[in-house]
Amino acid sequence: MAKLSTKDRKKLPAKDFAGPGRSYPVEDKAHARNAKARASEMAAKGKLSAAEKAKIDRKADAKLGKKAAEGPVAKASKPTGYAKVTPPPKGCTKK
Predict the structure, then answer these.
(1) Residue 74: closest CA among 92, 52, 57
(2) What three-state secondary structure class fits 92?
(3) Where do the domains of the chain lie?
(4) Each residue of 36-48: pLDDT tens digit?
(5) Which of 32, 53, 66, 76 could serve as a FRET partner for 86 with CA atoms 20 to 30 Å apart?
(6) Cα separation, 59 vs 94, whole angstroms
(7) Cα distances (Å, whole numbers) of residue 58 to 38, 47, 65, 78
(8) 30 versus 74: which is more confidently predicted?
(9) pTM
(10) What does the DSSP 8-state code read for residue 86?
């Protein structure tokens, strides 16, 4: 990832930032990947809302050339597998 100096960061237009307050610069693919990683970390720590993370991911994905998912449900809609459920032994009843 190319080093981004304070001077160069100040020159970037607002559209090259994915987060609030000119945070998470995404001016190139390396910074976009980094923005996604840092946003995931902050969301896991509870310091970034799900909506803010989704916005950062959308902007970073656009820079990376990825198609945006259609909302948070699109990612969760793929089945990951099914748990095998076995019936209770004979004679056991649920009260």
Answers:
(1) 57
(2) coil
(3) 13-72
(4) 999 999 999 999 9
(5) 76
(6) 51
(7) 14, 19, 10, 19
(8) 30
(9) 0.66
(10) -
Which residue carries 């998470």 as its tokens?
24
Rounded CA-CA distance 35/26 in Å is 7
Q: How many CB atoms lie within 10 A of CB 16?
A: 18
Please give the structure tokens belonging to residue 24.
Answer: 């998470």
The angle at the Cα of 48, spanning 46 to 52, to the nearest 5 degrees, equals 145
Altogether, the residues listed in the chain come to a count of 95
Given a contact cutoff of 8 angstroms between Cβ atoms, the answer to whether 32 and 60 are in contact is yes
Interatomic CA distance for residues 24 and 13, integer angstroms: 13
Per-residue pLDDT tens digits for 4-16: 899 999 999 999 9
CB proximity list for 58: less than 8 A, separation 6 or greater: 18, 68
DSSP 1-54: -----HHHHHHS-GGGB-STTS-SB-SSHHHHHHHHHHHHHHHHTTSS-HHHHH
Token pair in block for residue 66:
């990825």
